[in-house]
Amino acid sequence: MSLLRFKMVDAAINHAAVEPTAPEGCPSDYFGEKVFNHAAMRKYLDKRTYALLSETMEKGTPLSREVADSVAAGMRQWALEHGADHYTHWFQPLTGGTAEKHDAFAEPDGEGGVLEEFSGKLLVQQEPDASSFPNGGIRNTFEARGYSAWDPTSPAFIVDTTLCIPTVFIAYTGEALDYKVPLLRAVTAVGDAATEVCHYFDKNVQRVFSYLGWEQEYFLVDESLWAIRPDLVLTGRTLMGHESAKNQQLEDHYFGAIPARVMAFMKDLEYESLKLGIPVKTRHNEVAPNQFELAPVYEEVNLANDHNQLLMTIMDKIARRHHFRVLLHEKPFKGINGSGKHNNWSLGTDTGVNLLGPGKTASENLQFITFLVNVISAVYKNNGLLKASIMSATNAHRLGANEAPPAIISTFLGSQVSAVLDKLEASRGDDAIRFDARNVFKMSGISHIPTLLLDNTDRNRTSPFAFTGNRFEFRAVGSSDNCAEAMIVLNSAVAAELRDFKAAVDARIEAGAKKEKAIYEVLKQKIKACKAIRFDGNGYSDEWKEEAARRGLDCETSTPLMIDHYLDKNVVKMFADLGVFSKVELEARAEVKWETYAKKIQIESRVLGDLTMNHIVPIASKYEAMLLDKVYKMSQLQGLNASADILLIKKIQDHTAAIQKMTDDMIEARKQANRIEDQREKAIAYHDMVAVFLDKIRYHVDKLEEIVDDQIWPLPKYRELLFIR
Ligand code: ADP
Ligand code: MG
Predict the structure, then answer these.
(1) Of the four, 29, 164, 361, 507, which is 20 to 30 A from 394 by CA?
(2) Ligand 1 closest atom vs CA 284
(3) Contact 401, 476 (CB under 8 A)
(4) Which of 476, 448, 248 is nearest to 345 (CA)?
(5) What is the DSSP letter of 490?
């Protein structure tokens, strides 16, 4: 082991669990204490202001400036009393992550003192000098006109000593520059369309909400080891590293005991999350060593997404306190599972009905089937677009790469729901669907085990979009993603489908058909038309790839080409009709996606080049020189056979030569790609010409890791990175 590596491994082993700050006692004592929630509003706002703000939060009615001033005054007082001295508009630019620019509450009062200033104007709108966020050409940097505006539907909160105000980020000309604006638009679109469809079944429904429950997977690595892996530090993943002899094959990590150090971290993370009103609920080990998962109770999608964004930021801070680094990259380690962010999604009414859950009456079940069919039909029509929404340079390693699920979107419904759809499709009349919400499953022969309530679905872990009994689970979302992108596309696609459904049913009713019959007929058509998207088999298999291609599903594997779907004619029309994205906004988003893709590959390629030339080749050469010296000395003596050493020297020669040659070629390819101006073309060049070198070079480095003397190998190995003691 090199001295540095030894020191760091030693430090990692000796990092003891850090005492968590979480107090003993009940989470309800501190849940939401850092949030300007209803309880705080009631205390700090006058009655009228509170009533008006509540109405805005619930119904989206506009707030007058005068009311905003009162809200700001109350919010400021609350924040100051809770230790805040700064405030910031907190927004979600297209870079991923969140952005904030802190301003102090204290302002000079003009008489030599300071005044705690925070008006309605400062609460509602700001012009952050955020000109260098990616905007896909919507806003030239010299114009620097981007506005952040308060989103009252997501409550303000305090992180450290800063009051954070969730805001949207828009250009002077009105185009969205963030994830929140289109998400809010998509949520409105799906809510309105779903409400209309609900009226076939229940006239009392006034609003439909879109819900999201994310499951966040992540890896932890010890900070000392992380610090001497430049690839982890700069790209978030290991660009090299031979597989550890033991990794996940024994499946002993999944749901296993959580190591003490990790447990302390999780306790702190949960404590901080709960104080911020993030309703975290489950924690457990994931499949791969050092991989974990955290999931909250689901919430309205805009709030849920803010909470996920917030969680990702605080995770990082808390990890450092525990001498860890969090890896949110989708594939930090080769050969073991990557991380996703399962997006559990559903629609629910203001009357408390989950539209994706089976009901008790025939009418409720027809409503359930209606929404279910519209969802899978939307997924079918937009399978390429949905894939584009979750694809990135980092998630590409997880989907469709060596590890499944493949880069093909399909839906899993389970045998019972599939049977219902098949029956419906084959039926001729309008026979009522008998769908038992409580499938009582008796285990024969084992009398002491109580009757189990079976989910309406079997479990299929290989499906990227699975129905799980009362919701869909979009599993292809990447662990580092902003969920909003997937949620914008999904909610929009479903909104468009529901509008289409309503138009078709209404047309039949106008032509004299009875409502139920009209609904059945349209459903039957949709079930037939979208059959190709249903796949209950093994999504990891090669046969499925062939089958999916035959079915006409999108099987594109190149990320830059997937992004093209954002500009498909029907997609542009769909988003425009729904008022979610204008064409300019879509072009800008695609542009940013291409640009980000190329930049990420560029960085990886540079880091790999540095590592091979500054770390790997010199060390391998050093070992080679030692061997050469040995062989030379052996040749001076009689009767010694150096053939094994010579073979080893040759191997090292071959690998280092290949690395040097390919590194040069990769640099040349990069130069060529960099000369391309067009972002799409550039991304394609990075995909086709540069990214291909990463794995090829890695192959030789990993071979060298196996044969070069461990004493001098500089980088922590997988077996050291992956097992927290
Ligand atoms: P699993 O790992 O079995 O998929 P988890 O309990 O880890 O399940 O996570 C399931 C997630 O789905 C949680 O965030 C949960 O709140 C969420 N969820 C449950 N019901 C719904 C629903 N109707 N709509 C949206 N999300 C839901
Ligand atoms: Mg899940």
Answers:
(1) 164
(2) 7
(3) no
(4) 476
(5) H
pLDDT of 624: 97
- Band of residue 441 on the pLDDT scale cut at 50, 70, 90: very low
Asked whether the predicted pLDDT for residue 132 surpasses 80, the reply is no
pLDDT at 454: 42
Closest residue by CA, ligand 1 atom 2: 215
Question: What is the rounded end-to-end Cα distance, in angstroms, of the chain?
Answer: 19
Are the beta carbons of 335 and 289 closer than 8 angstroms? Answer: no
Note residues around ion ligand 2 (Cβ under 5 angstroms).
Answer: 215, 342
Q: How confident is the model at residue 658 (pLDDT cuts 50, 70, 90)?
A: very high
Q: Where in the chain is the domain with CATH 3.10.20.70?
A: 31-176
Q: Which residues pair with 285 in a beta bridge?
A: 292
Q: Which fold has domain 187-578?
A: Creatine Kinase; Chain A, domain 2 (3.30.590)
Radius of gyration of the CA atoms of the chain, in A: 28
Find the helix packing angle between 180-198 and 301-321, rounded to 10°: 140
pLDDT at 317: 94
Residue 720, token pair as written in the block = 């050291």
Could you count the other beta carbons within 10 Å of the beta carbon of residue 228?
A: 17
8-state DSSP, 340: B
Q: Which atom of ligand 1 is nearest to the CA of 297?
A: 16
pLDDT of residue 440: 34
Name beta bridge partners: 103: 87
CATH 1.20.120.1560 range(s) for the chain read 593-721
Residue, of 430 and 188, whose pLDDT is higher = 188
CB 574 within 8 A of CB 493: yes
Q: How confident is the prediction for the chain on average, in pLDDT?
A: 89
Measured CA to CA, the distance from residue 208 to residue 352 in angstroms comes to 9
377-397 pLDDT tens trace: 999 999 999 999 999 999 999
Residues 290 and 718: their CA atoms lie apart, in Å, by: 11
Q: Which of 12-21, 156-165, 325-334 has the lowest mean pLDDT?
A: 12-21
Q: Which of 66, 81, 99, 86 is nearest to 36 (CA)?
A: 81
pLDDT at residue 141, rounded to an integer: 43
Mean pLDDT of 198-204: 97
Q: Which residues line ligand 1 (CB under 6 A)?
A: 211, 213, 215, 282, 295-298, 344-346, 354, 470-471
Q: Is the peptide bond before 406 cis (omega within 30 degrees of 0)?
A: no
What pLDDT digit, counting tens, does each position of 53-91 carry? Answer: 999 888 878 888 899 999 999 999 999 999 999 999 999
Token code pair at residue 435:
């769908």
**CATH (one of 3.40.47.10, 1.10.3720.10, 1.20.120.1560, 3.20.20.450) for 593-721:** 1.20.120.1560
CB 149, CB 137: distance < 8 Å: no
Where in the chain are all domains bearing CATH 3.30.590.10?
187-578
User: Which CATH number is associated with domain 31-176?
Assistant: 3.10.20.70
Q: What integer pLDDT is reported at residue 65 of this predicted model? A: 87
Name the closest-CA residue to atom 3, ligand 1: 468
Please report where in the chains the tokens 């640009």 appear, as a residue. 595
108 contacts 142 by C-beta, under 8 angstroms: no
- Which carries the bigger pLDDT value, residue 13 or residue 676? 676
Cα separation values, 457 from 367, 425, 436, 469, Å: 18, 20, 12, 6
